[in-house]
Amino acid sequence: MERKVKIAQYGCGKMSSWLMRYAIEKGAEIVAAFDIDPAAIGKDIGEIIGCEPLGVSISDAKDADAVLQATKPDACVIATRSTMKDLEPAFTVCAQNGINAISTCEEALFPWNSSPDITKKLDALAKAHNCTLCGSGYPDLFWGTLVTNLAGSSAKITTIKGSSSYNVEDYGIALAIGHGAGYTIEKFEKEIGNYNSLSSDEIKELVEKGEYIPSYMWNQNGWLCEKLGLTMVSQVQKCVPCTHHEDLHSSTLGMTIKSGDATGMSAIVTTETKEGITIETECIGKVYAPEEFDSNVWTLEGEPETTVVVNNPATVELTCATLIQRVPQLIDARPGYVTTNNLPDNQFMVKPMNYYIHSL
In this protein, which residues make up the domain named Dihydrodipicolinate reductase N-terminal (predicted)? Predict the structure, then answer.
């Protein structure tokens, strides 16, 4: 591809400053931007990125259809919410205009096992308009291809165990409450832990109806199974409260969490496969004590046993860099909703982005 790749940015919050800057640094051109926040609408994207004006103003998201028709980007980067239900309108307007779209939404990485109806609808729409929809970000590599590449060095695998922790203080009050932060143990067990005894079929039914929102690892285990060629037999999730031996103040919740109360939770997803490999993954989201920090740990049990530990990962920057470097593969991919387990492993772009695109 000889010209610059044209990109639209949908959602101009915190993540977008990295996403747009990385896209520009990789040789792309931002031709449009959208948001729903009145305080953001009308701003030049340079103000969001932290540089000089770039001549592109943020449009109201309700005008996305008209702006996309006028600017005709090659791809749209969506950084808004974390569920497919929330994301459906943005994906839909892109697909209706035949524009490839990729999102930071965690569920978007592998939504086939959590929002199958929405995903099937988007898949059909994208195929009808000859474009590709996808999700990427931190889990794509650090919970995905990192693990499957390690698996390629194993002679035998019996169990894959993964654990990733994050501070709910960094992600807002809705996420903190969703993790049970500040709850008494009794309230946690009543409102969050009450699903722990359900069978695989019972949980699957509730998830697919949208009556139970699983952790990010629910989707990740589906991604890993497909990438590794494993056949899922059962999958369950259990949510366990995290506690601390001292009181902890939460600026996000505006309260002090008493010693012994829930500071958040660990959501453990266990997947059994026909091939005899168990995948056990854990998301730990809580209000951190002063000495705690983000970590990402994966262990492959078998022959040999291998453990990889990543402490203090720069999750936001890694998310944005991973996604931007997926854009050439997004554009070159077949039409439909295509998850990244069906794409080549991500590639560091040492040349401008357009160099890596072959379909335009």
Answer: 5-102
How do residues 149-206 score in pLDDT, each as one tens digit? Answer: 999 999 999 999 999 998 988 877 877 888 999 999 999 999 999 889 889 999 999 9
**Phi (first) and psi of residue 12, to 5 degrees:** -115, 45
User: 40 — alpha (psi -120 to 50), left (phi > 0) or beta?
Assistant: alpha
CATH 3.30.2450 fits 139-313, yes or no: no
List, as one string, the DSSP characters of 68-124. Answer: HHHH--SEEEE-S-SSHHHHHHHHHHHHHTT-EEEE--TGGGSGGGT-HHHHHHHHH
| Domain-wise residue ranges, the chain | 6-136+326-356, 139-313
Distance separating alpha carbons of residues 142 and 146, to the nearest angstrom: 5
- On the question of pLDDT at 211 being above 90, the answer is no
For residues 256 and 250, the answer to whether their CB atoms sit within 8 Å is yes
Residues 6+ apart with CB under 8 A from 68: 8, 32, 76, 93, 94, 97, 99
**Residue 325 CB neighbours (<10 A):** 20
- DSSP bridge partners of 269: 237, 281
Q: Structure pTM?
A: 0.91
Q: How far apart are CA 57 and CA 44, in angstroms?
A: 4
Q: What are phi and psi of 353, to 5 degrees?
A: -55, -40
Tell me whether strands 264-273 and 278-286 are parallel, antiparallel or unpaired. antiparallel
Closest to 296 in 3D by CA, of 140, 105, 167, 166: 166
Instruction: Indicate the CATH number of 6-136+326-356 among 3.90.550.10, 3.40.50.2300, 3.40.50.720, 1.20.120.520.
Output: 3.40.50.720
